[in-house]
Amino acid sequence: VQVSIVCFDGFTDVDVFLLWDLLNRVQFPDWKVQLVGENDEHVSSTGLRIPMHARLAAVGTAKAVLFASGRGTRVKMNDATFLGALRLDERNQMIGSMCSGALLLAALGLLQGRTATTYPTAKAALERFGVEVVERSFVSHGNIATAAGCLAAQQLAGWVIERLAGREERQFVLQSIQPIGEGLRFDSDPRAFR
Amino acid sequence: VQVSIVCFDGFTDVDVFLLWDLLNRVQFPDWKVQLVGENDEHVSSTGLRIPMHARLAAVGTAKAVLFASGRGTRVKMNDATFLGALRLDERNQMIGSMCSGALLLAALGLLQGRTATTYPTAKAALERFGVEVVERSFVSHGNIATAAGCLAAQQLAGWVIERLAGREERQFVLQSIQPIGEGLRFDSDPRAFR
Q1: Does residue A136 sit in helix, strand or coil?
Q2: Residue B51 has what pLDDT?
Q3: In the predicted model, what is the mean pLDDT of residues B26-32?
Q4: Set of chain A residues whose Cβ sits within 8 Å of the Cβ of B181
Q5: For residue A122, what pLDDT is reported?
Q6: For residue B86, what are the CA distances in angstroms to B58, B115, B175?
């Protein structure tokens, strides 16, 4: 089971790394998460140079493909080469986005006739694609989902984990990052300590 | 104003990157955040190879020094060279830790006679340092703070931001990553859109 996170220059750090960390906590046979991009490395909005695990073509064999956010989305949503390299099939793949990553789903034609959510600074641009933007942290329609507000990465990762690895696995993964004394306690089920 | 995040091999991804992203959202004159470590690069627990901005000695000029967590802490808490390179002064610097990073504060003698929090899997090891471990997401004593449970990075970053950049800045930074429709809304103060 392979999950791809699509990156590009100018991606928002926390939106990638929160998804990345949560998805890597899954304990499931042959579970593999990879960062994919056009280049060997991509530079985040804060200037971190991050190595990719594979090129964009790797999304073809992924069970789930999640799009990063950040100012890079405004470049990539108009980049025909980038968009053309993403051969996705929503009948067989889960496809989702964080924050302004919804602009890329829209540019790929995946949000037509659907509601979606996005970061406030990307709302107008998403509406220009004809998408009805709703003020919610997570919106899903079948195999397509949009999440917005960085901490909503928990819902997007949870959506993928529940469908591909089960509801119990989702619970333990999400519990493992909660603050001590709130969602996670010293006497919690040890499967939540990851 | 320089803030250092201390990394090492085997650091927990989200604990570093959530702090890193939040601290980089601060808009304050000459505000600078850096990842520091013994090497040019360090490898996270999930295998990401991350370039450092400076070596450990750079903590000497930081206003705040925050310690990463992860299985690497069990190695580093016994590494005299590593610990000796960290010249810290709690009278003039804020010093904090995420999750099992508290083991490093303890190894540096910074938690003597103080309560602290840590990740459940590090509780027994922290108690062996003679520290009273309390089940809370954030514990501070003057310039020393421990936070635990990954999402408590918000409290640790918030503690640093409020003291060094002001309460209003803390509010806008923390609001900027909340889920849409919950802590962040399309009509929120635009200063919260970062």
Answers
A1: coil
A2: 97
A3: 96
A4: 117, 135-137, 149
A5: 98
A6: 9, 22, 33
CA distance B12 to chain A (A): 8
Structure ipTM? 0.97
Burial B129-153 (b: 16+ CB within 10 A, else e): bebebeebbbbbeebbbbbbbbbbb
**Measured distance CA(B160)–CA(B62) in Å, rounded:** 12
Question: What per-residue confidence (pLDDT) applies to B177?
Answer: 98
In angstroms, what separates the C-alpha of A17 from chain B's closest C-alpha?
A: 6
Q: How far apart are the first and last CA of chain B?
A: 20
Q: Which two tokens stand for residue A189?
A: 């089920």
The pLDDT, as a whole number, for residue A63 is 98
**Residue-averaged pLDDT of chain A:** 98
B150 touching chain A per CB within 8 A: yes
For the residues B8-23, what does the mean pLDDT come to? 98
Q: Do A51 and B51 touch (CB under 8 A)?
A: no
Contacts of A109 (CB under 8 A, 6+ apart): none
The predicted pLDDT at position B38 comes to 98
Average pLDDT over residues B30-43: 98
Task: Give A 52-111 residues with CB within 8 A of chain B.
Answer: none
Minimum distance, in Å, between the CA of residue B180 and any CA atom of chain A: 5
How do strand B32-37 and strand A138-141 relate by DSSP bridges? Answer: unpaired
* Interchain CB contact of A119 with B (< 8 Å): yes
Q: Which residues of B touch A123 (CB under 8 A)?
A: 186
**Cβ <8 Å between B119 and A50:** no
Q: Which residues pair with B44 in a beta bridge?
A: B11
Question: Please, which residues bridge with residue A114 across strands?
Answer: none
Structure tokens at A106: 């829209």
| B121–A193 CB contact, under 8 Å | yes
Type of residue found at B104: L
pLDDT digits (tens, 9 = 90+) for B108-118: 999 999 999 99
